[in-house]
Amino acid sequence: MSQNRVPKKIVLAYSGGLDTSVILPWLKQRYPGVKLVAFAAELGQGSELKGIEDKARKSGADEVVVMDLRKEFAEQYCFAMLRAHAVYEQDYLLGTSIARPLIAAKQVEVARQTKADAVGHGATGKGNDQVRFELTYMALGPDLQIISPWKDTQFELRDRETAVDYAEKHGIPIPVSKKKIYSQDRNLWHISHEGAEIEHPDSEPNWSACLTMTAPPEKGPDQPEIVSIDFVAGNPVAVNGKKMAGHDLIAALNEIGGRHGVGITVLTENRLVGMKSRGVYETPGGTILYEAHKALEQICIERDTLHYKQQVALRYAELVYYGQWFHPLRIALQTFMDHTNATVTGTAKVRLFKGRAMQVGASSPHSLYDPQLASFSMEGYDVTAARGFIDLFGLPMKVANEAHRRR
After folding, report:
1. pLDDT of residue 3
2. Is 129 a catalytic residue?
3. What is the mean pLDDT of the chain?
4. Does the predicted model carry a pTM greater than 0.70?
5. 84 and 52 in contact (C-beta within 8 Å)?
6. What percent of the chain has pLDDT over 90?
7. Quick one: fold of 186-363?
8. Rounded Cα gap, residues 45 and 191, in angstroms
9. Domain regions of the chain by residue span
10. Catalytic site residue 30?
11. Span 295-316, pLDDT tens digits
12. Which of the following is catalytic: 15, 19, 132, 148?
């Protein structure tokens, strides 16, 4: 579909934040007569959605659709990523990245239901989210027109400060001000913070202003806490013996981990569009789950398979970060990840203390750990077999070094 025609009805990804709040009335000005559907996804952002329907309508929405996607988000997106054990650039547990494809996919569904001919978002032309939204639109709704105001030459708002001015001028309630200019994204899996002093890599973030889900590590309890997590085929199903739905399980671990200051990351990352950016991420529950999942993978997955899985997880993480959730490669890699996790069933224990989550034990009916083989006892083990093995294993190094000396 041509991206230059005038849309009749737009489904806008609406969060109630600064960007989408000012975009709703702006779209009315940009396309006179257009109908606007504000789509809000409940992904565990807490009180942020309170009164969102009223706010959206006052900002210009003709229809408002709110979907509670917490269970689907947890079990079909976050846990799929957990089974892959995907981490972007060593630290980022992909909280924003994993949410965007789900929101965009539901936007396409809503567009079909409301007979809209366009979908839109409030992501800027500098960030990753524009890619994540639009790749999903292209994959699932290629006939729909994509509306991206920040890339529209007629969009006069060039930064967050002018967006605040626009909101104040038009009487639009917004959750930020020029004094509190952080850009934040929250869902069940994490909360991210960008902007202000965080943008300066030589500055320590203002923790009192940033941290929302977690306590500063030094203010955590003075006694450690052990939390146990049960897994079935790589999926967490219970905390401390209590079975829970996926979204409730993450929420419970967020509370426990947040109390201990677990899951705070300061990261200068490489955006897909080319520049580096710096953010503060809070992922308390996700950090505990990754540590517990790692403990079970270590005892349940054979060495070569585990090592290859770790290599492939880097590519998987890139695909998620780049917004390619519906890419055939991600789907194919998911099949591999799920196959390797078929035996990742059991219980892992994680110790929480002053910002640290450390696995301290794991058990599984599929464990490959043999205490007798691992012990210092040589009983039942042919020690002479190691001699020939080492001779052959080291032969290429021996030959290469002998040749080097001769030269």
Report:
1. 61
2. yes
3. 94
4. yes
5. no
6. 82
7. Argininosuccinate synthetase, chain A, domain 2 (3.90.1260)
8. 9
9. 9-72+96-181, 186-363, 375-406
10. no
11. 999 999 999 999 999 999 999 9
12. 19
Task: Decide if 100 is catalytic.
Answer: yes
Is 60 exceeded by the pLDDT of residue 238? Answer: yes
| 154 close to 30: Cβ distance less than 8 angstroms | yes
pLDDT band at 181 (very low <50, low <70, confident <90, very high): low
What is the SS3 string spanning the chain? CCCCCCCCEEEEECCCCHHHHHHHHHHHHHCCCCEEEEEEEECCCHHHHCCHHHHHHHHCCCEEEEEECHHHHHHHHHHHHHHHCCCECCCECCHHHHHHHHHHHHHHHHHHHHCCCEEECCCCCCCCHHHHHHHHHHHHCCCCEEECHHHCCCCCCCCHHHHHHHHHHCCCCCCCCCCCCCEEEECCCCEEEECHHHHCCCCCCCHHHHCCCCCCHHHCCCCCEEEEEEEECCEEEEECCEECCHHHHHHHHHHHHHHCCCCEEEEEEECCCCCEEEEEEECHHHHHHHHHHHHHHHHHCCHHHHHHHHHHHHHHHHHHHCCCCCCHHHHHHHHHHHHHHHHCCEEEEEEEECCEEEEEEEECCCCCCCHHHHCCCCCCCCCCHHHHHHHHHCHHHHHHHHHHHHC
CATH 3.40.50.620 fits 9-72+96-181, yes or no: yes
Catalytic residue among 15, 59, 129, 160: 129
Answer yes or no: 183 catalytic. yes
Is a pLDDT exceeding 70 seen at residue 218? yes
Token output for 332: 């194919």
pLDDT in tens, 10-25: 999 999 887 888 999 9
Q: At 178, is the pLDDT very low, low, confident or very high (cuts 50, 70, 90)?
A: low
Catalytic residue among 70, 83, 100, 330: 100
Tallying the residues shown for the chain, one arrives at 407
Cβ atoms of 253 and 247 closer than 8 Å: no
Q: Which of 97, 183, 192, 364 is catalytic?
A: 183
pLDDT band at 96 (very low <50, low <70, confident <90, very high): very high
Instruction: Check if 9-72+96-181 and 186-363 are the same fold.
Output: no
In the numeric block, the tokens 């030589």 are attached to 202
Q: Which residues of 256-289 are buried (b: 16+ CB within 10 A; e: fewer)?
A: bbbbbbbbbbeeebeebeeeebbbbbbbbbbbbb
Radius of gyration in angstroms for the set of CA atoms belonging to the chain, rounded to a whole number: 25
